[in-house]
């Protein structure tokens, strides 16, 4: 039967045997009453560190906590200013506020949809922040990642990298999170490396930051009932760790499948008013999102056509951070060149998930081509 619909995302395409292996693993953990902590967590952190070539990989409860813990671990304190991109997921902004610091939104550019060095420099000079959170959105990173890292270091601004969407990406042949001073990720099930529930991790090359993270995740514990810091309970579960261990064995195949999808779209949709956005040559993407830009005036009609054909779509994200109704009470400043606003009106995401089939990709492309 020919394809009649394609979801924006589905989580049900697991490798053969994955389900049974997971359930057997859960049974074994259950029998050992290993629910939180235990050898499975340490094993998973070891596998994460190996895969990402990180010195330290530390599991925690979710990707938002990971950012909060990283902020505290590097010493961000009450009323410190922290730069965040105006185009990101709200959690980046929220994390800054939740540790008592003040977010400053800094615009991205329209080419990479990420920060560039010139705007970042301007923001550092104008706001003199304590830290900045560079977000690697959509499955790639800004081509100026290394320059921004160097500038931040020289300026004494601690650079945290929100890698919730960039697991497995590389710049100049090197792991992005593995070469960051400190980076975070989310294992929300819909991310490139997802868990069986909420989970996250922090990666760092700095021993002191790593030690702080471990303490902050577990109630500021220095000993079982000695508490040296005000932390959180942000421990990662054993079932999530098991699921991550199993998923890591397949992560290269899943990324390859996602990359096949974004390559397919780019090739098939050449020359249309809907223009797929891709990373620069020095960046290895992970295919998290299929991103395209269209004249904002033409977007609603294309969305209608996708809906009619039962093709799922996304608009990631439909509003800049500084424009959210929850923002003004906390916003300590902004650099707004209008780009995040433009992207929020022009962006359209096509279906993209691991093991999407050629027939599904073809159906999506036929729908888009027919529309134009
Ligand atoms: C998903 C995501 C987060 C939050 O992760 P959770 O695990 O849902 O808390 C933070 N930042 C970005 C860019 C994300 O995509």
Radius of gyration, in Å, reads: 21 Å
Largest sheet: 8 strands, mixed
CATH topology (fold) name of the largest domain: Aspartate Aminotransferase, domain 2
- The overall pLDDT, averaged over residues, is 97
Q: Tell me the CATH superfamily of the largest domain.
A: Type I PLP-dependent aspartate aminotransferase-like (Major domain)
**Binned strand content:** 15-25%
Report on this structure.
With 372 residues, this protein is of the alpha/beta class. It folds into 2 domains: 18-248, 3-Layer(aba) Sandwich (Aspartate Aminotransferase, domain 2), CATH 3.40.640.10; 251-371, Aspartate Aminotransferase, domain 1. 39% of the residues lie in helices and 16% in strands. It contains 13 helices and 16 strands. The chain has helices at residues 18-31, 39-52, 63-73, 90-98, 117-127, 145-155, 176-179, 207-217, 238-248, 251-268, 299-308, 339-346, 358-371; strands at 56-60, 81-85, 102-106, 131-135, 158-162, 170-171, 174-175, 182-186, 200-204, 221-223, 226-227, 275-276, 283-284, 290-293, 334-335, 347-350. It has an 8-stranded mixed sheet with strand order 1-9-8-5-4-2-3-15, with helices on both faces. Strands 7-6-13 form a 3-stranded antiparallel sheet. A 3-stranded antiparallel sheet has the order 12-14-16. Helix 1 packs antiparallel against helix 9, helix 3 crosses helix 4 and helix 5 (117-127) packs parallel to helix 6. It is globular, with a radius of gyration of 21 Å. The two termini are 26 Å apart. The relative contact order is 0.18. One of its GO terms (molecular function) is transaminase activity. It comes from Bacteriovorax stolpii (Bdellovibrio stolpii).
């Amino acid at each position: 039967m020919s394809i009649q619909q394609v979801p924006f995302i589905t989580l049900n395409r697991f490798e053969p045997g994955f389900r049974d292996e997971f359930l057997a693993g859960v049974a074994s953990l259950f029998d050992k009453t290993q629910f939180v902590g235990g050898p499975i967590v340490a094993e998973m952190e070891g596998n994460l560190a190996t895969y990402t070539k990180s010195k330290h990989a530390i599991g925690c409860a979710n990707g938002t906590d990971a950012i909060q813990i990283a902020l505290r671990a590097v010493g961000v304190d009450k009323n410190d200013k922290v730069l965040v991109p105006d185009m990101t997921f709200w959690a980046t902004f929220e994390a800054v506020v939740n540790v008592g610091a003040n977010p400053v939104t800094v615009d991205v550019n329209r080419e990479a949809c990420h920060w560039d060095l010139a705007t970042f420099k301007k923001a550092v000079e104008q706001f003199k922040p304590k830290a900045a959170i560079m977000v690697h959105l959509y499955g790639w990173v800004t081509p100026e990642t290394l320059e921004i890292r160097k500038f931040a270091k020289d300026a004494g601004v601690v650079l945290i990298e929100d890698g919730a969407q960039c697991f497995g990406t590389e710049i100049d042949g090197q792991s992005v999170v593995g070469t960051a001073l400190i980076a975070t990720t989310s294992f929300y099930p819909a991310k490139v490396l997802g868990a069986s529930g909420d989970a996250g991790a922090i990666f760092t090359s700095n021993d002191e930051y790593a030690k702080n993270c471990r303490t902050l995740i577990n109630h500021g514990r220095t000993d079982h009932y000695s508490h040296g810091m005000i932390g959180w309970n942000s421990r990662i579960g054993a079932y999530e760790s098991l699921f991550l261990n199993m998923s890591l064995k397949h992560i290269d195949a899943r990324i390859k499948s996602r990359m096949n999808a974004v390559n397919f779209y780019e090739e098939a949709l050449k020359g249309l008013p809907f223009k797929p956005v891709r990373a620069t040559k020095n960046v290895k993407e992970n295919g998290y999102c299929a991103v395209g830009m269209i004249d904002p005036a033409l977007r609603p009609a294309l969305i209608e056509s996708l809906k009619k054909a039962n093709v799922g779509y996304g608009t990631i994200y439909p509003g800049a951070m500084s424009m959210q109704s929850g923002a003004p009470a906390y916003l300590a400043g902004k650099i707004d060149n209008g780009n995040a606003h433009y992207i929020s009106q022009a962006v359209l995401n096509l279906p993209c998930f691991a093991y999407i089939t050629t027939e599904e990709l073809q159906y999506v492309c036929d729908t888009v081509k027919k529309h134009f």
